[in-house]
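re: ur question from earlier - yeah i can do the single chain one, its not a big deal. heres the input i used so u can compare w yours
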Amino acid sequence: MSSSKALPILLSSHSPDQTTIVALPVTRGLLVGEFTRHEVKHDYNAATASHCMPLIGEEDRATLRERFDSGLASYVNLIVFTKGTDCRFCKEVAQIAQELSEIDPRIRSEVLDADENPDRTAQLGITRVPATAIVGSADYRIRFYGTPAGHEFSTYVQDIINVSRADPGLSQQTLESIKRVDRDTRVQVFVTPSCPYCPRMVLMGHQFAMANERIHADMVEALEFPELVGKYGVLTVPRTIVNEKHAVNGLLPEPLFVEFLLHSVGLLESVSPALAQRLEQTEVEASSHGNYDHDHGEQGQE
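and the output i got, formated as tokens:
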């Protein structure tokens, strides 16, 4: 295991629905759920996958095989975008998709270099790497930016099942509310692999995207994109940003997330006391940590 660079790791806060990001020097090779990240050369391709140490163990493969046997309804494509250089975890992201495709033939993986495939990159709206688009009979605008490891792996698996079934799995009331969104809307949920509250927010965002073609929903792994952490003032996760400027911290119940989304796109002028309290709390947390530089360029893995 290499020990070259420091990596921000997650420390639990005292909040019941969010965790706090604190930068601490740790050795390279961070255990996140069932996966360990290592320093690697980023020359991954499908032909060399068989020579990589498996990221998904045999017991987990057996569990996933059973789940896919009962849950999948049709084919799903995992389209992974990488770069040949300056992409720290591209290899792991591609390898996870490849290993899932080996578990069930209805899951197909495709690895593309973003620089060498500008048309596909633009078509799927990929803005940075590593990125994964989960596409079924339609593109439901579900994106993972960074490694779907740790707690986020469960969301990744559930998204695959939902996309295969072309069913977001939302209540009729939520579906009717989400369909009110009549303008292009981007939802970004910042996460870390160790955050137990993040997967539900990511899954709901992706479910909303499946329910309305005007919604795009991204999981953003905060540890892999520090420039975005600075841009959006991410100190706790999950932190959800709608259309670049509306933010809320923590895990929201589904009705409150729907209300936040509708309020953020201008379809609700007033909000419930519960949402007002959460938005006020988010503002207090931001102000208590001082101002952030929102003007620096996005560098690194774009």
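The first helix runs from residue 58 to 71. not sure if urs matches, ping me
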